Amino acid sequence: RTETGYFGELRHYKVNCARYGRSYFNTPRIYCDGEWVGKFTVDIDRNFYHVVVYALYYETVTKDAVLRVDKPVKGRYIDVVANKRRESLLRKELENISLMSLSLKEAFSLNGMAAMGN
Q1: Is the CA virtual torsion 108, 111, 117, 118 positive or negative?
Q2: Phi, psi of 75 (to 5 degrees)
Q3: In this structure, how many other beta carbons lie within 10 angstroms of the beta carbon of residue 53?
Q4: pLDDT of residue 118
Q5: What is the pLDDT of residue 59?
Q6: How far apart are the first and last CA of the chain?
Q7: Which helix (H) or strand (E) holds 4?
Q8: What is the number of other CB atoms lying within 10 angstroms of the CB of residue 100?
Q9: CA separation (Å) from 118 to 79, 108, 113?
Q10: From CA 87, how far away is CA 89, in angstroms rounded?
Q11: CA 104 – CA 61 distance, rounded (Å)
Q12: Is the pLDDT of residue 113 over 70?
């Protein structure tokens, strides 16, 4: 707890792709199968709150087509959605960034927290 709100960690967070009309075939596996960790802050000011989620990191398993074995894949979210110099977001990832944003927004809404039992 801080003077203006809270801070904490996300652990074992999963995006529900189907809830947002996304399928396994049109969404990268890091979103459909990935498990996420990260950090967040919640700043509270009278009747409003502001959430910042950062340092997102994912882990998932992918199939190696040649060897036909599961291969762990993990990394930082910024490395997936931004160009190498981190000057801008990749255009091809904008739809997936929206998916992640909607998922986190719902998870941190007061209704979302009540539904999750938090």
Answers
A1: positive
A2: 170, 180
A3: 20
A4: 46
A5: 92
A6: 16
A7: none
A8: 20
A9: 31, 10, 5
A10: 7
A11: 22
A12: no
What's the maximum distance between 2 C-alpha atoms anywhere in the chain? 57
Tokens of 11: 């652990």
Pick the closest to residue 37 from 1, 9, 70 (CA basis).
9
Q: Are the C-beta atoms of residues 46 and 54 closer than 8 Å to each other?
A: no
CB 33 within 8 A of CB 60: yes
15: burial class by Cβ within 10 Å (0-12, 13-18, 19+)? buried
Nearest in space to 8 (alpha carbons), one of 115, 114, 107: 107
Rounded distance between C-alpha atoms, residue 114 and residue 45, angstroms: 20
Q: Confirm if 51 and 12 have CB atoms less than 8 A apart.
A: no
d(Cα 41, Cα 46) in Å, to the nearest integer? 16
Tell me the average pLDDT across 37-58.
92
